[in-house]
Amino acid sequence: MLAGAQVCDFVQLLKPRVMTLVVFTGFAGMLAAPGHLHPFLAAVAVLCIAVGAGAAGAINMWYDRDIDAVMRRTAGRPIPSGRVAPEEALGFGVVLSLFSVMLMGLAVNWTAAALLALANGFYVFVYTAWLKRRTPQNIVIGGAAGAFPPMIGWAAVTGGVSVESLVLFALIFFWTPPHFWALSLYTDGDYGRAGIPMLPVVAGRRATKRQMLLYTLVLLPIAPAPFLLGFAGPLYAAVAAVLGLLFVVAAVRVLRDEDERQRAARQMFGYSILYLFLVFAMLIVDGAAGALV
Question: How far, CA to CA in Å, does 265 sit from each of 57, 178, 198, 241, 247?
Answer without folding.
Answer: 25, 10, 15, 21, 12
